[in-house]
Amino acid sequence: MSLHTFHIPVMGLAFTIDTPIKVAHYGINSVISIIEDTLIEKVRKVYSKKHDVPYIPIKDQDEDSRATRITTYLNLVKKIVDEKINKFRQSCSLTEALHYLDLLPDQSDIKQGFLKLKTKGSADDIIHYARSHAQPGTIDVNIMTKLDKVNYEKGKPLPSIYKDAHASVRGFAYSDLNSSLVLSAGLNPALYSYLSNFDDFYPDQNGAFKKKIILKVSDYRSAMIQGKFLAKKGLWVSEFRIESGLNCGGHAFGTEGHLMGPILEEFKNKRASLTQSIYDVYQEALIEKGHAQLSEIPALKVTAQGGVGTANEHSFLLNYYKLDAIGWGSPFLLVPEATCVDSHTRDLIKNAKEDDLYLSGISPLGVPFNNLRSNTKDQEKQQVAAQGKPGSPCVKKHLSFNTEFTEKPICTASRKYQHLKIKELKDHGLVAQDYEKAYKKITEKACICTGLGTSFLIENKIDTKQEGNGVSVCPGPNMAYFDKNVSLKKMVDHIYGRANIISRKDRPHMFMKELGLYLDQLKKMVDEFLNEGTTKTEKKIQAFIFNMKDGINYYQHLLGRKLNLPGPEAHAFFDFLEVAQERIDRLATKSHIKICV
Questions:
Q1: Using CA atoms, how far apart are residues 227 and 296, in angstroms rounded to an integer?
Q2: What phi and psi, each to the nearest 5 degrees, are found at residue 475?
Q3: Average per-residue pLDDT in the chain?
Q4: Which is nearest to 7 in space by CA: 142, 203, 186?
Q5: CA nearest 481: which of 505, 511, 458, 465?
Q6: 102, 245, 348, 406: most buried by Cβ count inside 10 Å?
Q7: Average of pLDDT values for 529-553?
């Protein structure tokens, strides 16, 4: 059982790569990205030295080096966290005990017991209480399922088990961790099937799982499809982690106009049937695979994340939608005790306003990517383009999927691809304005393989000759309202309503912010339709508008009175809903698209 009602999601490649080492001994769950094994190897070297653990390099040419690096690092993280929690249980001071207990949510049974003890117990009583209730947070790991590039040896493709995501799964499965694998970015049938090869994902004789599966999803339909797919393989989903399509950090997998509130309402109303239908499929699969059936349905949690910024929003999501926990991502970029961000980038994040945080096309995956203006990776990219050498050296090759010009896939952010693409562009004989537009679209792509991992190297004074010094960072739009570095204690107090770290008075409610982002997305779709639209695009916009209107109606009539917002905030919320309705109607009129009713 988790001590806290929040978790820290994965952020970039490096920003949370050592977060469990920093916060797990406080009972806080967090997530590491395990897709970039060369970075992981460098992090392992740093922490081996810090904790006096022998370090034996794992070289590229070593057998199954990618998976081995991941396994070895995760085992080291577990070792460090175990040592920290054991030391706390054996010898924590009164100050340490009070700090640990003060972090807990006030509503928890452990915190309530502490508050009673605090009034009449001795220092020794408090220390003993803290030691006896201490438990570590989970060391969870994340894999973007689509980052499953084929790898080569001497020019020949290796078997599928050596693909990037497959090797990452193997690295986690072979580790000593008792935690969860977070799968994001959608269904990858081959990868999901590969999970069934590892015993740790199956229940033991007591129905417990050593390795659990968390699916990051955008809506109920996706949860049902992916949950049943895995269940047919004999794999149980222990948690559906619902993320806002646009009001989040990193890659933005927007929905077709489906808003967060209605999505959560559907999960709330159908949670029991979702669980039962997946369980029925799961039981049959266990029999087919020769495993004993379970006597009861395993736990299936539902959590949410994306744009949460106040204690009121946090508690509302937990209490109204009956969620098990809430993810707080981007705000933790301003908590040095929890995340790894170099000082220059942290200052950029701290000073960012709404216009500095935007949805970009920099990702080679072709998926919209939240970006921060003036980040050093983009500056580096622009400088080399100005020198007539657009693109980046492809050092990591994790995003090499394009075969437009080559038989072997290459990355669209690479110098090789951009050289070939620009050469093709020149042959088209476009007018200057059209050429410039196309050129910018090509050179916008950035090497996020290196950029999202550089912060750790800079902060730990590790040579960046191979990767370069440029840092990519991908905070969500919510980051505009957080403007100062804070301690872990201060951030946790903010989450639980014991403090407030937002100085601005104009922060919109998370549901309003997301609605605004979808309105911007709709405007972009309409503009593109007017320029070069097709019947297919028209139908897509019709569905988008229908779903947005349905969401606005939900907020106006079903949810509004239950939000329990203070007077001015309630007025702002409902006024914005009216404005949103009007904007949608104007866009529909502008595009001559008939709105479905």
A1: 18
A2: -70, 155
A3: 95
A4: 142
A5: 505
A6: 245
A7: 91
**482 in Cβ contact with 352 (< 8 Å):** no
- Cβ atoms within 10 Å of 282's Cβ, excluding its own: 24
Mean pLDDT, residues 138-152 taken together: 96
**C-alpha to C-alpha distances, 185 to 10, 182, 440, 449, nearest whole angstrom:** 13, 10, 26, 16
Helices 123-133 and 109-120: crossing angle, nearest 10°? Answer: 170
> Is the separation of the CB atoms in 97 and 131 below 8 Å?
yes
Mean pLDDT of the 52-56 span: 97
Three-point CA angle 586, 588, 593, nearest 5°: 155
In the chain, the amino acid numbered 318 is L
**How would DSSP label each residue in 324-364?**
SEEE--GGGGG-TTT----HHHHHHHHH--GGGEEEES--T
Q: Residues 97-119: pLDDT tens digits? A: 999 999 999 999 999 999 999 98
Percentage of the chain surpassing pLDDT 70? 99
Predicted structure pTM score: 0.96
**Can you tell me the distance from the alpha carbon of 100 to that of 94, in angstroms, rounded to the nearest whole number?**
10
pLDDT of residue 596: 61
Say whether 29 sits in a helix, a strand or coil: strand
- Predicted confidence (pLDDT) per residue in 214-231, tens digit: 999 999 999 999 999 999
Q: In this structure, are residues 110 and 134 in contact, taking their beta carbons and an 8 Å threshold?
A: no
Classify burial at 214, counting beta carbons within 10 Å of its beta carbon; exposed 0-12, middle 13-18, buried 19 or more: buried
- Residue 257 neighbours by CB distance under 10 Å: 24
Taking alpha carbons only, the member of 177, 244, 236 closest to residue 34 is 177
Half-sphere exposure of 58 (CA within 13 A, CB side): 20
Cα–Cα nearest to 249, from 350, 154, 156, 369: 369
**71, 176 Cβ separation under 8 angstroms:** no
The predicted pLDDT at position 202 comes to 96
Q: Which amino acid is at 503?
A: S
For the record, the structure tokens of 349 come out as 């994040």
